[in-house]
């Protein structure tokens, strides 16, 4: 499974295909995966794979290709519709084994138990230990030709995966806190390097490993995770699939931190001091400065700074806020009502002058 023509232009397609054939394997293929993978395409893949009866599904690509393969791996042995897993109608009890050749370090899907797909304007996720890949290959040289926006988006996305776990109310998490804080600092450091030097093997090695660890569950050990920012972004890119996931996160996260920083300041101030290296002793001032430094980092990476800059100035914000909460609350660090989500959306509608 693969996406567009990039793996053919770079020669990776030929290398992988020949390697499989040289090993004496029978190979079928399917390209055409798009960003924000659609459940309709996944249903097609499942129907074809049930005829092929594959022993393994191999994803050659980034998060969208891997998530497509993960969803298909759940759906192939299942008697019902694959969307059942995403709406809570079914739980994955077995899956076709999957492996990965990573071409974009970002989503961390190559070693996570999570998968996200789109159905119309609904973008939902589910998780299962059965869809963790049994093998993932990460070659930094495959990242050298990535467009700048994809490289930058990967850096922002992997950092967000740690943040969604870091902002927790669980106590006594000092060891994991220290690991997470160091990882976020490292991601920013090496992210700046690959922004300047897109063929820096050493920097890509660090970023590649960071992306995998950011989403394999390590930074959430023993604690309640949040995921409010991902929920708010999924609503946006579900409404408009052309929105790049990481760009939406870069817009939402500063607004989210400003909102929760007033209501649950101790943890946000800790992040500002230990990750963004703010020296302010007052928590409120530390939080403001930390958010300002995060925004500056996002700008360095070429990220948009508002919904209007994201191309979402016409988004139906009230409708999205209601949709993402579904009559309940979103997240755990500070549980968000629909009105809170709307406040955050509106706070990042336009960049500050």
From TrEMBL:
The keyword Oxidoreductase applies. PROSITE patterns: ADH_IRON_1 (PS00913). This is NADH-dependent alcohol dehydrogenase. It holds the Pfam family ADH_Fe_C. One of its GO terms (molecular function) is methylglyoxal reductase (NADPH) (acetol producing) activity. The lineage of its organism: Bacteria, Pseudomonadati, Pseudomonadota, Betaproteobacteria, Burkholderiales. The keyword Oxidoreductase applies. Residues 152-349 form the Fe-containing alcohol dehydrogenase-like C-terminal domain. One of its GO terms (cellular component) is cytosol. Keywords: Oxidoreductase. It comes from Mesosutterella multiformis. Residues 2-140 form the Alcohol dehydrogenase iron-type/glycerol dehydrogenase GldA domain. InterPro entries: ADH_Fe/GldA (IPR001670), ADH_Fe_C (IPR056798), ADH_Fe_CS (IPR018211), BDH-like (IPR044731). CDD domains: BDH.
